[in-house]
């Protein structure tokens, strides 16, 4: 597997729960009392070009030199860091782990503003810089889900030195369709204007996020009625917070989808592990041959839906660890 030259290990760093943190990064008491933490660990907030961001951090209780791991949830009407919970809870015992909540989702601000590809990419770059500040400027490992894989790829191309490796779970952008391969989004302005009409904006979102409807979409995602009920419960809670409709309306209107996603993936230079399922509505990877043959890419398909880390957590972690084992010598996970 081709990769940049390995970096030298930085001095031993303390895992997030016991490391000193600057007062500015410690989050104030939660203002959304009805929304519990999506994962364990400490809640922090930072200012960034994408606005004020919320993230969660945890890790071993003793000092470690393990490479930090950043986990990034998908983008949909009910996105939150809960979507990476199985991986977060697994890896926090052995390495520093971080879970960001992107602008418009979870405990991050949900104000009414324009949500863009640039904003999401800047959020990933900002949390990456914060993690590196804490851990001595070392390259990190990062994993993203679904549409966030496109933001992750863009961030990795803009700051390749910041990432030791990237993992993409059920990435969008590999659909069997002609691509324009040019910059820009797939925005449909009139559709967004329709959804955000104040006469029915909240009503429509309320209908789309009723518990049975969320369950319907989770069934489509998992390709089975055997989906995680904890995810259903949290999805319902997070979609019933003030301003919860704003970012999802930009999502369904195409503003967050990149025209040039295939090119972004092909341009990545660090080791990349792509994984996906074969069940449900999100199984079109007809264009994955564009990257499957690249020397820095490896691809794993699971007999699951679009969230294999929920359905096969042990097998998924073993495969991820095997991917780590093949990386250039650096700070071991």
Automatic annotation (TrEMBL):
It comes from Rhodopseudomonas palustris (strain BisA53). InterPro entries: AB_hydrolase_1, AB_hydrolase_fold. This is AB hydrolase-1 domain-containing protein. Residues 68-175 form the AB hydrolase-1 domain. Residues 1-58 are annotated as: Disordered. SUPFAM superfamilies: alpha/beta-Hydrolases. Residues 1-13 have a biased composition (Polar residues). PANTHER family: ALPHA/BETA-HYDROLASES SUPERFAMILY PROTEIN (PTHR46438), ALPHA_BETA-HYDROLASES SUPERFAMILY PROTEIN (PTHR46438:SF2).
């Amino acid at each position: 597997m081709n990769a940049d030259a390995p970096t030298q290990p930085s001095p031993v760093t303390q895992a997030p729960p016991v490391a000193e943190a600057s007062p500015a990064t410690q989050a104030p008491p939660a203002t959304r009392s009805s929304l519990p933490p999506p994962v364990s660990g400490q809640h922090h907030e930072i200012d960034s070009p994408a606005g004020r961001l919320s993230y969660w951090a945890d890790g071993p209780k003793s000092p470690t030199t393990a490479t930090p791991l950043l986990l990034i949830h998908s983008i949909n009407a009910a996105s939150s860091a809960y979507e990476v919970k199985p991986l977060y809870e697994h890896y926090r015992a052995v390495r520093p782990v971080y879970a960001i909540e992107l602008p418009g989702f979870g405990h991050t601000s949900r104000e009414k503003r324009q949500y863009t590809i640039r904003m999401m990419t800047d959020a990933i770059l900002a949390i990456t810089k914060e993690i590196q500040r804490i851990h001595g400027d070392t390259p990190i490992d990062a994993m993203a889900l679904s549409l966030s894989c496109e933001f992750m790829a863009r961030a990795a191309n803009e700051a390749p030195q910041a990432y030791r490796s990237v993992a993409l779970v059920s990435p969008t952008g590999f659909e069997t369709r002609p691509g324009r391969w040019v910059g820009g989004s797939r925005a449909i302005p009139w559709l967004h204007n329709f959804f955000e009409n104040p006469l029915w904006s909240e009503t429509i979102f309320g209908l789309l996020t009723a518990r049975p409807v969320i369950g319907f979409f989770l069934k489509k995602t998992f390709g089975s009625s055997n989906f995680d009920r904890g995810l259903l419960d949290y999805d319902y809670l997070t979609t019933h917070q003030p301003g919860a409709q704003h970012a999802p309306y930009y999502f369904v209107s195409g503003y967050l989808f990149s025209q040039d996603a295939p090119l972004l993936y092909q341009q990545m230079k660090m080791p990349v592990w792509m994984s996906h399922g074969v069940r449900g509505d999100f199984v079109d990877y007809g264009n994955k041959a564009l990257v499957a043959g690249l020397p820095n890419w490896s691809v794993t398909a699971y007999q699951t839906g679009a969230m294999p880390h929920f359905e096969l957590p042990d097998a998924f972690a073993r495969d991820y660890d095997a991917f780590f084992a093949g990386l250039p010598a650096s700070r071991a996970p």
